[in-house]
Design a protein that fits this description.
Layout lengths: L6 E3 L8 E3 L23 H10 L8 H24 L3 H19 L1 H5 L10 H10 L13 H4 L23 H7 L4 H18 L1 H10 L16 H26 L5 H23 L14 H6 L11 H4 L7 H6 L8 H11 L14 H12 L5
Antiparallel strand pairs: 1-2
Length: about 375
C-alpha cells in the first residue's frame, strides 16, 4: 500500500481516515533474541495435518449462515429502535449494548463474504448487502478484492498488506489513537457515501481516487485498491449507488426532522461503539511483530496471528463469526466460520505439544492487550 507519508487508518470497518504516524521508526527497534518471523520456515507436518484433518469441514452450510445473519440483524436493528426511542435512560443503555453486539456480529459476515465461494452460498452477498452492508454504509466491496491480499504469502506483513502495520514496534501513543480514531468512523462513512460517492459519479476525475483511496477497509494508509473492471466494476457501481442513495436519504430524514436529532445521535453512538469494538479486536488479531517487513512463510503468519479458543467465553462476543480462531483462519482461510471450532479441536488433539500449532493460542483480551502495550513501551516518544 508510495511511502512518502505514514499513517494509521481509522478502522477496518471504515474508510481511509488517517493520522500521522512514523512507521519507519518501527524498523529501528532493538534486536531481540527471537527468531525474526521472516526466517521461520514452514512446519510441513502441521500444514499437512491441518489440511488432511479438515477436508470434510470445508463446505459452508447455508442454513447456518442465513439464520445467524438474520437473527443478528433483526436483534440489532430492533434494539437500535428501542434505544433511539426509549424514555428511560437505563433502557436506552441496555438496548444500545444489545444493538452494538448484534450489529457487530452481523457486520462481521463481510469477512466470510470475502472468502466464501458465492456459488456455495447463493445470493448471500446480495442479502447481506441489503440487510447490513448498505444500511451500515460498509458494503461488501469495501472488503472484497482487498482482504484476500492480506492472505497472500508474498504480501502478509509487508508494506503491500492492506491490513498490517508493525504496531508492536511503534510508539506507545499509536495504540490509543488507533482505537480512539475509530469513534469517527460513522462520520467518515457518511462523508464517503453522502458526499464523495455521489460527486465522483458526476465528476469523472474524482472517481478513481475515491475508488482507490476511500473504498477499502484497510489499516495500511499507503494501500491503494485496484479499480475493478468489467462486470465487477458494474457490480461495484451498483452497490456504491445504493449506499450513496441510503446515505443521502438518511441525511435528508434527519435534516427534515423525520428522524429526531436525539435518535440520530444515539444511532451514531451505537455505530461508533461497533467501530471501536472492531478496532479493539483488530488490535489483538495479530502480534504485529513483523517489523522487518519481509515476506513470511505460512507458519510464520500463523504464529503472528491469534487464536482465543475455549474455555474463554468472552471472545464469542468480541471476536464472533469465527474470528476467535484468527490464526487457524490464516492456516486454512477457506474453512467456513462454523467449522473452525471443530477444526481446532481435531488439530489440537492430533499434534503433540512441540508443534507450533499450540503456540498461537492465548487466554483472552486483557493478556493480548497487555502484551502489545508492553512491546510498545520499549519505544520512546
Amino acid at each position: 500500500m508510495p511511502r512518502c507519508r505514514h499513517y494509521i487508518t481509522a478502522m477496518p470497518i471504515a474508510m481511509n481516515q488517517s493520522f500521522a504516524l512514523d512507521r519507519r521508526a518501527a524498523a529501528a527497534v532493538p534486536a531481540t533474541a527471537r527468531v525474526p518471523f521472516h526466517q521461520i520456515a514452514d512446519d510441513k507436518a502441521m500444514l499437512r495435518a491441518a489440511a488432511e484433518l479438515t477436508r470434510d469441514l470445508a463446505t459452508p452450510r447455508p442454513a447456518i449462515y442465513w439464520a445467524d445473519l438474520g437473527v443478528s440483524a433483526l436483534v440489532g436493528y430492533a434494539a437500535l429502535v428501542v434505544a433511539a426511542t426509549a424514555d428511560a435512560t437505563w433502557l436506552t443503555i441496555v438496548a444500545s449494548v444489545v444493538s452494538v453486539l448484534a450489529l457487530y456480529r452481523a457486520l462481521l459476515f463481510i469477512h466470510e463474504i470475502s472468502h466464501v465461494k458465492h456459488a456455495a452460498l447463493p445470493r448471500f452477498r446480495l442479502g447481506w448487502n441489503a440487510l447490513v452492508g448498505v444500511p451500515m454504509l460498509t458494503p461488501s466491496f469495501m472488503y472484497e478484492g482487498v482482504h484476500n491480499l492480506h492472505h497472500a504469502k508474498t504480501r502478509y506483513g509487508t508494506s503491500e498488506d492492506p491490513e498490517y502495520l508493525p504496531l508492536a514496534s511503534m510508539k506507545p501513543w499509536t495504540l490509543p489513537v488507533f482505537i480512539l480514531v475509530s469513534l469517527l468512523a460513522p462520520l467518515g462513512l457518511l462523508i464517503r457515501f453522502a458526499i464523495l460517492g455521489p460527486l465522483s459519479f458526476v465528476i469523472p476525475a474524482l472517481r478513481r481516487p475515491v475508488v482507490e483511496r476511500f473504498s477499502a477497509l484497510a489499516i495500511n494508509p499507503d494501500f491503494r485498491r485496484r479499480v475493478p473492471e468489467g462486470e465487477a466494476l458494474k457490480q461495484f457501481n451498483r452497490i456504491d449507488l445504493s449506499a450513496s442513495a441510503w446515505a443521502l436519504t438518511l441525511v435528508a430524514l434527519v435534516a427534515g426532522g423525520v428522524i429526531p436529532l436525539r435518535s440520530f445521535a444515539i444511532g451514531f453512538a451505537i455505530m461508533s461503539a461497533v467501530a471501536v469494538l472492531n478496532q479493539v479486536r483488530t488490535l489483538v488479531a495479530h502480534l504485529w511483530d513483523n517489523h522487518e517487513g519481509e515476506a513470511m512463510s505460512v507458519t510464520a503468519q500463523y504464529l503472528d496471528s491469534v487464536n482465543v479458543p475455549p474455555p474463554s467465553t468472552l471472545p464469542a462476543l468480541w471476536a464472533p463469526v469465527g474470528l476467535r480462531y484468527h490464526a487457524l483462519h490464516h492456516l486454512l482461510p477457506g474453512l467456513p466460520y462454523h467449522s473452525l471450532g471443530e477444526a481446532h479441536r481435531r488439530i489440537s488433539a492430533a499434534l503433540d505439544g512441540s508443534s507450533p500449532y499450540h503456540k498461537a493460542s492465548y487466554a483472552g483480551l486483557p493478556g493480548l492487550v497487555g502484551r502489545l502495550v508492553r512491546s510498545t513501551m520499549g519505544r520512546k516518544g
